[in-house]
Amino acid sequence: MAETGTRIRRHTKLSVVGAGSVGTAVAYACLLRGSADAIALFDTNSAKVRAEVLDLNHGTQFAPSCRIEGSDDIAVTAGSDLIVVTAGAKQHPGQSRLDLAAANVALTRDLTPGLLSVSPDAVIVFVSNPVDIVTRAAIAATGVSDGRIFGSGTVLDSGRLRYLLAHRADVAVENVHAFVVGEHGDSEVALWSSATIGGVPVESFAVDGRPVFGPDTRAELFEEVVRSAYEIIRGKGATNLAIGLSSARIVEAVLRNQRRVLAVSTLQTGRHGLQDVCLSLPTVVDARGAHTVLEVPLSPEEEAGLATSAATLRDVQSSLGL
């Protein structure tokens, strides 16, 4: 416990599972942003995790106060308020996220019960790909279906779309509101019908009387969103910096009980007719996890695209016995 004047503030502990490029980016982003009071890094590669913890600790004097530790023993994660799981097989150039499914589902089934055994009250956020399938596997392996286990989903995809819209409209990205939903992958869907720039619907946004985002432009931008991860992987081997920052936003929504609406991947229970599949829709995230899926109006095309995305994920689930 920490005392500030007459207020008592509880220390918060974040654990990051996986000391690869994504896990270390998550830990680094959370350190810089002051997302948690303590960060634990867990990886079975003892030399790697020790090196990353040492590197992070050397920079703590230049960041908000945070205690950082790490180990190849899962006990280092004990007592976590929130656990971010990034461990798993790496996506290679030309490989889809769904190609990783079997290996990462097997890892998830083994790992998740162990994490909950030492942190029974923790919220667990999966970032490992394919995140929707991995999240479904974790829920199935533990029976925790109350929203305490969810995936990072299309939070980053939504960020990519907002960046492209802001760049094309020449406005600050904070003034753009748009969601990508469904699978975090090739079948994801952009919700153009509810996207706005400064309160103006994207589909009618104009400069000097000329529409900026006609059908062809929208299609071009969305294709860039879908293919951007592949481009980054081809160029540098992995996507890590933006997912580190977007994960920090999710971490803060939980640890600070912010009640943010984020496009995270949760087990669907009837919204838009979807059930028994994990995919992303705008969802309230707070200290309890991800628990309230909003009723976002969808155009007929968006409704159909979301149904197709869900069917794609169900086919993979079935092939893996989920």
From TrEMBL:
Pathway: Fermentation; pyruvate fermentation to lactate; (S)-lactate from pyruvate: step 1/1. Substrate binds at residues 91, 97, 129-132, 157-160, 239. Pfam families: Ldh_1_C, Ldh_1_N. Allosterically activated by fructose 1,6-bisphosphate (FBP). It is found in: Cytoplasm. The keyword Mitochondrion does not apply. The modification Phosphotyrosine is found at residue 230. Residues 12-151 form the Lactate/malate dehydrogenase N-terminal domain. Keywords: Allosteric enzyme, Cytoplasm, NAD, Oxidoreductase, Phosphoprotein. Gene3D superfamilies: Lactate dehydrogenase/glycoside hydrolase, family 4, C-terminal, NAD(P)-binding Rossmann-like Domain. GO terms for cellular component: cytoplasm. HAMAP family: Lactate_dehydrog. This is L-lactate dehydrogenase. The gene is ldh.
